Amino acid sequence: MDEKIRNAIALKKFSIIGPVLNGQVPNNVEYFRKVANLPIEMPHYGMRKYSYKTLISWLYEYNKYGIEGLVCENRCDKGKSRKISFDLGEKIVARRKANLRLPITLLYENLVADGVINPNSISIATVYRYLDDFRAAGEFKTNNESPESLRFAHEHVGDLWQGDVMYGPYITIGKKKVQTYLHLFIDDASRYPVHAQFYLAQDFEALRHCFKEAVLRRGIPKLVYTDNGKIYRSQQFEYICASLGCTLLHSQPFVPQGRGKVERMFGTVRIRFLSDLDPTTIRDLDDLNQRFFKWLEDDYKRKVHSGLGGLSPHDVLMSQVSKLKLVTNVERIAENFLLRITRKVQPDATTQIENILYETDSKFCGKRVEIRYEPEWLNDVTKALPIYEDGKRLGEARVVRFHDNAHAARKSKWNKNKNVIIAKEDELTVFVEDSIKNSISYSDIVGGDR
Known about the structure:
single chain; Nucleotidyltransferase, domain 5; 5 domains; six-stranded antiparallel β-sheet; five-stranded mixed β-sheet
């Protein structure tokens, strides 16, 4: 199992315990029992069912070690119930739903008579416990109504951020007209844009920058709610959210109702900002953003919002500023936003990142390690990239300096049957096989003084 799969499994575990960590469920026990009754699509392993105790253990590991505690080292299904398999469980539940009035004792006897259950391996008590978990989760309710779509609003700032991207105006850069994109994160409770900015792309780098600015300015949210766009589904973004301790949620495909607040703000931007903007007067992207930031401060943030009971987004945010989980360690937060890649270190202690050769300590030779970095670091030959193994920083990688290595002293072993190099205190003496002895000064060999 490679590092990418292990990380994917850890992120899946976090997505399951995330609602408990962020207070989304009223009863943790009922939530975990309900999840334990449902099959989970686990990366690498496929559809699996996990016991209640296993789910509790994931929560314990995260609280103790963070996201790294969820990265499996050996088995990921340790503690999983094996008494009733997934296929057998489906048959039992189907029989139960077919006749809810039938006592479980008779249900068990019928399953044994039909050869579905072997009484020597599965007792009636096991079936009782299995069906009781489904009953507690509401699986056997006779409710055929369609799912409701209700308007919602979180009570406190920082509980939920909604994120999305909107197509912006074309601007002229040089002799070309270039499309812009507005990346936005808005607080659900206050409708306050924690950060919004125009970019020249709608890729992951733009998303990462926007989200980082939002976190540094307005703290860490409990939940992040986005659509199913590729950039929001990337493992890099999932890892950023998990490292910060916030849960990443995605809306159902083709169901935009849950993102109504961010869509409404986009409408306000189009009507109140873009409609009064002359694109021909925009000098560059920075000029567009400066005008947009000024509009946000002077207009949107201070304007009374109909959904806030006569208050403005700024008023609501300031009234609950104590609820924000503000950043106290900027360096630690910046580390969470670093890009992560896995590379194998070659026998000569080198590895390659985007066609740039890096070298590190020989102790990493032959190992697969995680390297974290900012993209601009690759343009700086003096910048060291931190190396992580199992979530711990254990070293760094630097750009190979070939000229410096040419003058670096190598370790050598004495072998009296081969040509050897012996470094004495005053000179370097070279012995050759034909017994011709030449004394050469150290400076003649290496160049310069010792």
